[in-house]
Amino acid sequence: MKIISTPIELKEYLKNENRSIGFIPTMGALHEGHISLIKKAKEQNELVIVSIFLNPTQFLRGEDLDKYPKKDEADKQICKLCGVDILFFPKTDDIYSSDEVSLLAPKVRGYVLEGESRPSHFNGVLTVVMKLLNIVSPTRAYFGKKDAQQLNLISLMVKQFFMSVEIVAVDTVREKDGLALSSRNAYLTPLQRVEALKISTSLRSATAMVMRGILDSELIVANMREILSPLDISYVAILNREFTQISKVELGNSVILVEASVGNTRLLDNIWL
Ligand code: AMP
Fold first, then answer.
1. Pairing state between β 254-262 and 232-240
2. Is the alpha carbon torsion for 187, 64, 233, 230 positive or negative?
3. Residue 25 C-alpha to ligand 1 middle, in angstroms?
């Protein structure tokens, strides 16, 4: 595995590359969720590139940028073992300068749900993803369905900016007991980890209601809020795949999303029905 740290070096290295490229952008502290994206990319492409870049512009002041888990050596080993061809490991100064052009998230879809409590978050996400896609020029880029709003906005950006990369959505990987894998799970105490299970339990219960034919969004959300209490809930929402609120679940076209805090840790999860 080749490790490259600057955009110029990576662009130069890929200059005459004709093979298909699968790209997985990450912020490191890799887990089985990231590994499933890498595996999918390995299946579908001849060359696989992973980036590890803790993107400062998607963190708001006071968020966990400084204490975000860092596992550089373990991450390198994981990438090597997974058969990654190139690990792109830039520093902040390699990606950002002091006077920057940047992207703005769409005024509606970028400022609901996670964007409501983290107003500039998706500007940072879209800007860095645009930069990384331009550096790597991949055939396909892989994103987790776990970050459904991020996936939706990146797909929108690629469409609206007429970019030629294919965005591939990958299912959420969970622990055996249902907890969605996340680098932030490392912040949870054993007791908080048990509390956090309420999130996946609420989604399982919502799925069971839908399977019983209960499609009314209000009823489903009320039931989920009951299961989630007393967690600090940021939102429980039922949307269609275009990310518009719907009053009834449409099978094959719906996403139920939750964000709740356990202690100081904000956790996201969702189910696609
Ligand atoms: P992050 O390092 O948290 O920015 O995540 C990098 C990519 O991995 C994003 O596309 C995430 O959606 C995806 N990802 C994170 N957790 C999971 C998971 N449990 N299952 C599948 N993909 C995930």
1. antiparallel
2. positive
3. 9
Instruction: Please name each of the domains of the chain with its CATH number.
Output: 2-170 (3.40.50.620), 183-268 (3.30.1300.10)
| pLDDT for 33 | 98
Tens of pLDDT, residues 29-75 = 999 999 999 999 999 999 999 999 999 999 999 999 999 999 999 99
The pair of structure tokens assigned to 66 is 């400084």
Ligand 1 center–CA 79 separation, angstroms: 15
Q: Which of 66, 251, 254, 265 is nearest to 180 (CA)?
A: 265
Measure 212 CA to ligand 1 centroid, in angstroms: 31
Choosing from 24, 27, 30, 37 the residue with most ligand 1 atoms within 8 A of its CB, the one to mutate for a pocket test is 37
Round to whole Å and give the CA distance between 217 and 75.
40
Q: Which residues are catalytic?
A: 34
DSSP string, 4-40: E--HHHHHHHHTT--S-EEEEEE-S---HHHHHHHHH
- Largest distance between two CA atoms of the chain: 57
Which pLDDT belongs to residue 159? 98
Site to substitute for ligand 1 among 30, 147, 149, most atoms within 8 A of C-beta: 147
Q: CB under 6 Å to ligand 1: residues?
A: 26-27, 33-34, 36-37, 143-144, 146-147, 170, 172-173, 180-183
pLDDT of residue 169: 98
Q: Are 144 and 152 in contact (CB under 8 A)?
A: no
